[in-house]
Structure formats: C-alpha cells, structure tokens
Amino acid sequence: MPASLEPLDVAVQIPYYFRCPISLELMNDPVTVCTGQTYDRSSIESWIATGNTTCPVTRAPLTDFTLIPNHTLRRLIQEWCVANRSFGVERIPTPKQPADPVLVRSLLNQASSVSGSYSMRASALRRLRGLARDSDKNRSVIAASNAREVLLLIAFAGVGSDSASFELNLESISILSMFTLSEAECMYVASDFERVVWLVNLLFHSSIDVRVSSAAMIESVVAGIRSPELRSKISGCDGVFEGVIGILNYPLAYPRALKIGIKSLFALCLIKQHRYKAVAAGAVEALIDKLAEFERCDSERALATVELLCRIPSCCAAFESHALTVPLLVKVILKISGRATEYAAGALLSLCSASERAQRDAVAAGMLTQLLLVVQSDCTERAKRKAQMLLKLLRDSWTHDSIAGSDDFAGSDVVPWPLWRKTIEHDEVGRKTIQF
C-alpha cells in the first residue's frame, strides 16, 4: 500500500474488494489463482513460498500455481486512486509482468543452439539480458531454468582462440554477472586458468560495461571457492588489481562501477600474500579519493579494505604517506555505521602503531573527541576495543591545550582532562578497557 495511505484510515475507506485477502492492504499487482480468488502478487507468492498448497480463502487445493494478472481489477484500483488524489492517495504503478518461464527456456535453447545462426543466438542472449536487468523476479525465473550452466558454456566457448563467437561470450558474461554462482560453477571457471586470464583481460576492454561484468564474475568466483591455492592464483594473476582499480577510477558517474569495483577489490585483498599488489596498482589513491562517493554498504567495504591493507607494513606506509588518509579516517568515525567505525579505528590503530607522524596527524584531526565518543556509544564491541587501544597508544601525544581547544568539548561533561589519562587499565581478563 502506498505510504501516503497509512494515515488516511478515517478520511478514506478502501473498498474491501481492493484489499488483498492475505495482507488486507490495497493491492498493487492483483493476480488470480486457479480457484478464481484474487490476491496481491507479493502476498500469494509469499504464501506459496512458505509451503502452502491451498487457496487462503477457499482452502481448496491449488492444482496449478500459475498467477494470472487481473488487469481489470488493477485498472479499477488505479482509477480509485486517481479519484481520491485530493486525500493524498497515490496512484499505484502499472507493474511489469515477470518473465514467462516458457519464453526463458525458448531463449536459452536458441542461445545454446550450435546449429542456429549467429544473429539469432546473439538476439536471444540480448533479450535474456534485458529480462535479467528488469527485476529480481525475472532473475529467479531465469535461474530456475538452469540458465547459469548453459550461459557458462557459452561464455567460455572458444576462450583462448580467435573465436567468431566473441560477442556471444560477452553477452553471456554480462548476464552471469547478475547472478550468484554456486561453488561448482565457480570451480568450473577457476579450475581452468585460461578462463581466469580471459576474464582479467576483459577488465581492460574498451566498454566499461564489459569491464564491470568481468569484475563481477571475478569477485563471484573468488568469493565462491574454498581452495586457498586457487584463490591465491586468481589474485596473483597479472593485471587483475590494475583492472579492478581502473574500474574504481572510471571518470564518469557510474554507480555500478563503484559497487562492483570495491566488491572485487575487497575479495581480492582477502588473500594476504598479494595485498601489496593492490597498493602497487594504485589502491591507496582510489580508496581514499573515492570514499566519499560510495553508498553506505560500499563505504563499509572500502574501509574494511583499507584496514586489511594497513595490516601489511609496506601497504601501511603507503597509506600513511597519503596526506588525506588519517584525517579522512578520523572524520568518518561515527558518521557511517558501527561497522565503518570499527574498520576505520582498526586502520588508524595500524597507522598510529607504525608511525609517529600518523599519531600527530590523528591528534591534529581531533581523534581524541572521536575515540571518547566511540567508547560511550553503541558501536560494536570490536570498535570500542580498538578505540580503547588507540587511546592508550596516544595518551602521551595529547596536551591539555589540545583538549581545551577542541570545540567538541566546549561546555561538554565528557571526561575531564585530569581524569581521562588515568582511566586506561587492564581488566581481570587482560583486555584493555576504559572506565569513567
């Protein structure tokens, strides 16, 4: 039901036949089941997904689970919404119908037909790509048709040769990048290093869409296999970090490039022995310069990547040499999420443990304020422990003047200067803690 309807219970009475019998809310996408009863699509799909095989109203068995759109009722609901616009009622949108499983299977057969013409196969793959991009529901229908297995065979057909089916390869990769691969499917890619090398080469394709799709595939494969040897082999592949960081540095606004780029970089950086390659490829500048452009979950992943890299001494030194690293990490504390605060504090702990200059920069950026707020906040316990360790590490770096001159403490009843330096102790289990 549109959000604007929620406070209108008194002013507007929704006709009972416009309400879904399951949710009792205004239907957005009415569909009729084999018993003749009509429900909102999301409600009846949830009912069936939980294992129910009867009609919620009549209790008669559902002999056919086909959901037929009730276009007439949906148009009546839309007309009612328009007629009540003066009461703040918003018109429900006309929903896109989910992909027809029969059509999906037909397109997959055409795409995989070796005897079919090149243009027919390419056209079928483009239609599948369009359906997959339309909605999660369509992707579920496509996945249920065993599409990933078929597309993997097409994607890597002729890899390593001057195959005339190159466009078919790229179209299949583009579709596969929208799905989560199973472990067996990831192993299919990772077990043949020529396939990995081919995906890495695509990271330098002239089309940004091809580059992003390839990065998404690489991330899915690295995250989906358990073999440390294969994961290490992929992250050690020549050019993989340069390609992924090139996607992060794409000059035009392209949200999917940022999202896939940071997911791929994080997955590759989980393999410790090759983290130095990320820094050599320009990860420091990419992460620090792009941090403000990420969405919340991607910001968390970016900060987690920074923390991972800062655990390697040479990488930590590279971050420390970037003038904006420490001030930016201090600034994001408590600004994004508890997890982001935890990762930022962890990165700062590595930086300040390795460099007195980083300690001075952190103090100048106002880290005392941030750390004291962290230990009093509802952040994660790990974030608090890291903040406590930082306070102990830096307790000799602050002066009374640096506290008194902080605008954040003006008129505040946060820990007074004479007391806070004496509050860092070890508790009975040996963990660092702060007591006020």
Automatic annotation (TrEMBL):
Coiled-coil intervals, chain numbering: none
Signal sequence range: none
InterPro entries: ARM-like (IPR011989), ARM-type_fold (IPR016024), ARM_PUB (IPR058678), PUB22/23/24-like (IPR045185), RING-Ubox_PUB (IPR045210), Ubox_domain (IPR003613), Znf_RING/FYVE/PHD (IPR013083)
Molecular function per GO: ubiquitin protein ligase activity
SMART domains in the cross-refs: Ubox
Source taxon at top rank: Eukaryota
Pfam family, one: ARM_PUB
EC number of this enzyme: 2.3.2.27
Catalytic reactions of this protein: S-ubiquitinyl-[E2 ubiquitin-conjugating enzyme]-L-cysteine + [acceptor protein]-L-lysine = [E2 ubiquitin-conjugating enzyme]-L-cysteine + N(6)-ubiquitinyl-[acceptor protein]-L-lysine
UniProt record, GO biological process: defense response; protein ubiquitination
Tagged with keyword Lipid biosynthesis: no
First-tier enzyme category under EC: transferase
Pathway: Protein modification; protein ubiquitination
Domain U-box intervals: 13-87
Keywords, alphabetical: Transferase, Ubl conjugation pathway
Entry function: Functions as an E3 ubiquitin ligase.
Protein name: U-box domain-containing protein
Species whose genome carries this gene: Buddleja alternifolia
